[in-house]
Amino acid sequence: MTNKIFAVFNNGCMTVISFTSRVFNYFVKYFSSKSVQYFIGLIIGVLAIIVLFLPSAYVVEEPGPTQDVLGKSSGKYVINVDNPNKASKKAVSAASGLKPHSKNGKLLLVTVNTSGVPGYEIPNIYAILSWFDSKKQILPREVLVPVNQNASDYKKETNKQMTSSQSSAQVAALDYAKKHLDVNVKNVKVKMHIDDIGGPSAGMMYALGILNKLTGVDLAGGKTIAGTGTIDNNGKVGAIGGIRLKMISAKRDGARWFLAPNSNCDEVVDNIPQGLNVVSVKTLDDAYKALEKIKAGKSIKSFKTCNAKM
In angstroms, rounded to a whole number, what is the distance separating the alpha carbons of residues 261 and 209? Predict the structure, then answer.
């Protein structure tokens, strides 16, 4: 009886094993066929395409437009100065050591176009392709944007930074004009207008633009001079982001001189576009005196420049 039961059990096991083997061989044969391989490849390809076009967790920075702070934006002057005490060009020139120039120069603020921030999302494929472009910079989004910040909050934050930058530029410029240029700034009113530019990095150039408008003297001496840097009420120039890309923008738009925050020198070194002279500045006074020397035709050897740290 026991032998019969064992025989039946053994036959059952063999039947199950045989069936399982046949099923396995069937699937091996089925999935080895070219049609199924093509189907699997198609599925993988579709999934890969979907992933490539999903929103990226990275941002892409590239050289942006420049703007002459002495010129107009959308038909309006970027800087308007109402100075009821305005001295003559001759008087201001005597006080500042500068002479009026027949050709008006340009003072360019420089920007970086940033894609991938809230409201300007990019697909993964754009971030991947940008990695191979030397004129672009790839950063994790959280480096620039707080986690979970939406488009509305991001825009409010950058606009707030720009407004604060303009306010500090006015305070620093008027204080400098009063203390160093002997200009009466009582009842002076400054209005500023700029479109689609956020952040604090144009502060120094705004301050220089205000001084230019306040005195009526062409501080650029007929040249095109670009620069970047935050500024506080005391005239201290601070570091900014994307300076390598901003130097590219400056050179592209005709600048031959560039004023850079001293605190950005590590990034400036080895990244200066050919033909662009970069001057290192720590304060508004440094920047103003640099403009004086540029206007006087001094060579780059006479300026403070960025040097590599040993």
Answer: 17
E strands along the chain, which residues?
Answer: 58-68, 72-73, 76-77, 79-82, 106-115, 137-140, 189-192, 224-227, 230-231, 237-238, 257-261, 277-281
105 shares its domain with 165: yes
Does the model's pTM come out above 0.85?
no
Structural domain range at position 100: 63-113+155-302
- Is the domain of 229 the same as that of 263? yes
**Residue 189: which CATH number?**
3.30.230.10
Q: Are residues 35 and 166 in the same domain?
A: no
Q: How confident is the model at residue 84 (pLDDT cuts 50, 70, 90)?
A: confident
* Residue 295, domain member (yes or no): yes
Span 169-200, pLDDT tens digits: 999 999 999 999 988 899 999 999 887 788 89
- Short-list 246, 190, 168, CA closest to 78: 190
In the chain, the number of structural domains is 2
Q: Cα(226)–Cα(249) distance, rounded to whole angstroms? A: 9
Positions annotated as catalytic residues are 201, 246
How many other β-carbons are positioned within 10 Å of the β-carbon of residue 40?
Answer: 11
- Token digits of residue 65: 């437009």
Question: Angle at which helices 203-215 and 151-180 pack, to 10 degrees?
Answer: 40
